[in-house]
Amino acid sequence: MCYTIPGQVKKIKDRIATIEYFGEQKTAINELDDLKIGDYIYAQGGFVIKKIPEAEALSILTVWKETFFELQELDLRLSRVGMEKYGVNKKLSFILDKALENMLLKEADLLYLLDLEDKKELALLFKTANFLRQKHLSNSCCVHGIIEFSNYCSQNCQYCGIAASNKEIKRYRMTEEEIYDAAKQAIEKYGFQTLVLQSGEDSTYSAETLCEIVKTIKERWSVLIFISCGEVGLAGLKKLYQAGARGLLMRFETSNQKIYRQIHPGRTLDSRIKHLEEAFRLGYLIITGGLIGLPGQTRRDILNDLLLAKKLHTEMYTFGPFLPHPGTPLAKSPHPEVKDVLKTLAIARLFDPINAKILVTTGFETLHPKAREEGLMAGTNSVMLNVTPHQFSKNYSIYPNRAHNQESIQKQINTTLSILRGMGRAPTDLGVSLDSPLP
Ligand code: SAM
Asked: What is the reported pTM?
């Protein structure tokens, strides 16, 4: 993962640039025609996104230099605390040792971990996941911004508060200008370098309109753009890639065909998967995953979800709790327990230790006020902040009482940076100086 700090290009071979950050080398795909060895750049999600003048780069690096190593040191220290395995049963100890030695865990091992209930054993699982996160990915943490530009949706997902059948919510569509204003604020004022553009399935925005939006944002600012507008069609995916989108956020929701059919009337899991496969083939970065705690879901289903996410080449795992919404057919179904969500996130790390970004979802934060702190200490390394203007975001009610719904962008950033600093983590895509005032 690349940091938000400027890196210096050390080598360019075909489309791959090698970039150095305080002595650490990373690689990224280069799509800039005029990139040269020695240039300073920002990279995001494995793409070089823009060059920056040397003087500006050097002054940012001076501010960061000491802090960079201090943060890494703190993270290293915290990730080694309490790894003793005294009194832990042999089977668990054996599985965790295998994970620590980079051996592939078998499905039976993962199912065993998914069945853990004992607090002490769970604590050891979370610590192991955090240790692996630190060992392979160091202290970087993705902080993407998300703009939810429309809550109109033609679909009737049985759990979702913005489903077409819910007549109780106030609907909104942001105009193109409103989307650009939100993007401008997120990028210029708050320093985001990766934006996710999300909406319900709303055909009012044709593929051409979505392409125009992506193209305009890319032309005005050099950022990495993920689209998250549901099934836009395989041709739509191609057009959006050509317009400059480089990431797709789309959960398959569940790998269980029967549950999928029951909760997505008129839709098929195969079609969802086809989109994800085609997106990867086109070169998109993939963020996918599923809902934890759906009615009828078993531990085996959760394992299958993790396997499917990996098979779909997810670069970021997004697994969050199902949260019952009163305006939906699943209003009376229970949400999962906090420990089951944390367990899934930690197991995702053991299952895909080396490269995976794993998200602490807003859904998890809605279920549990300490989700971010606990998730980040259990193997995860990504968060998303909502940069939708408040007058719209308050109506993006996919589930009730969404965490941070009342918070300004600045407040979300301050809280996030404060949590990250306390754990020695550095944001990868939020260009806010570590000198920025904290609350
Ligand atoms: N239309 C896009 C799509 O189909 O992926 C993106 C919008 S959709 C509202 C974004 C995500 O919200 C879904 O992938 C789903 O997992 C999540 N979501 C919707 N309702 C939810 C609920 N009640 N609990 C938890 N997550 C929910």
From this structure: 0.95
